[in-house]
Amino acid sequence: MEVVGPVRVVHQYVNMPEQSAEFYNETTGQLEEVHGCRPAMGYSFAAGTTDGPGSFSFKQGTTTSNPFWNAVRNFLAAPTRDDIRCQGAKPILLATGRMKLPYQWQPNIVSTQVAIIGNIVIAGVPAEFTTMSGRRLREAIKKVMNDASDGETFVIVAGLCNTYSDYVTTPEEYQIQRYEGASTIYGPHTLTIYLKQYQELVQAAAQKKFIPPGPPASKLLQSNLITLVPPVLYDTPRWGRNFGDVIQQPPKFASPGDTVTVIFVAGHPRNNLMTDSTFLTVERLEDDEVWLPIATDADWETKFQWTRTSMILGSSQVTITWEISQDVKPGEYRIRHNGYYRYILGGVYPYYGVTNHFRVAPALQKIRRRNYG
């Protein structure tokens, strides 16, 4: 399908507990004004899902509280009466909207955005929408687009985008309080608020209207984050080795469909996460004697496995495997490993290692080369 038309993008931060929307209550037949709630997790959240159940006595579908777990909850942060009333069918297990140490446990302000590309609308959502919630969001967006244009509109719900705020269920699913409903943190009308918000975003994008950016979101600076992962203290190579030395070389010949495995003396990968770079490259020798990278650690056919060989000495090795695809170009290849090691007296330093050359050719060519030199 060919997509033709302008590209428009709209983004807005939204303070969910302060939002309101109109909701038609089918039970009473009345149009009601509903509001968002401070974030909170319900009892069924602790029950887990069918394919990943939780611990203790928590069960999905719980709509009543327990004095013991309420006492544990209140020790961390006690919900107010308004919090309890707002969350409706959800008994609050964690009043995350009241928990701010070491920082806010769940966001009040979320990121919402839409991108219109021709007749395609991409809704970037900050949570996991259930199937029915996603369908209702698509229909709400289509309604606005159909009023603004004559062509057929295709809507894509894309998440997670910029913010994670757990799940979004329909008001009906919320009342059942299974895992997803208990994890719908802004209350029973979270979806109702999102439907209104995304309709307004789409309308603004379609009509080229200005929309305010919204309240600023919380900023978690890297320097303020707490981690329970122990730091890398130091790295040392194996006795008689240097970082980047090849412990296991590749075979001299390989064919499409083969798996080539090599092992290097290495430092700890957490010394440098190689963001926008790579821990490995598979390189082919070109006619001008230049090595051309044809695969990195981002490719499906490569694997990078780090192993600590000595906790006391801080020695490590990495195993790199390359599954040679059937359409690979015959030629001379090598595998390169890039990394960083932490010196015991301080400082982090780069290193690299390169394997011997090996030839990749169809099996018939490999047999001929062996037989006839």
TrEMBL record:
Pfam families for the chain: Ceramidase_alk, Ceramidse_alk_C
EC number: 3.5.1.23
Name of the top EC class for this enzyme: hydrolase
UniProt superkingdom: Eukaryota
Keyword Zinc (UniProt): yes
Neutral/alkaline non-lysosomal ceramidase N-terminal domain mapped to chain residues: 2-195
Note accompanying the cofactor annotation: Binds 1 zinc ion per subunit.
GO molecular function, one term: N-acylsphingosine amidohydrolase activity
Swiss-Prot/TrEMBL keywords: Hydrolase, Lipid metabolism, Metal-binding, Sphingolipid metabolism, Zinc
GO CC terms, sorted: extracellular region; membrane
Binding site for Zn(2+): 128, 167
Similarity section: Belongs to the neutral ceramidase family.
Protein name, per record: Neutral ceramidase
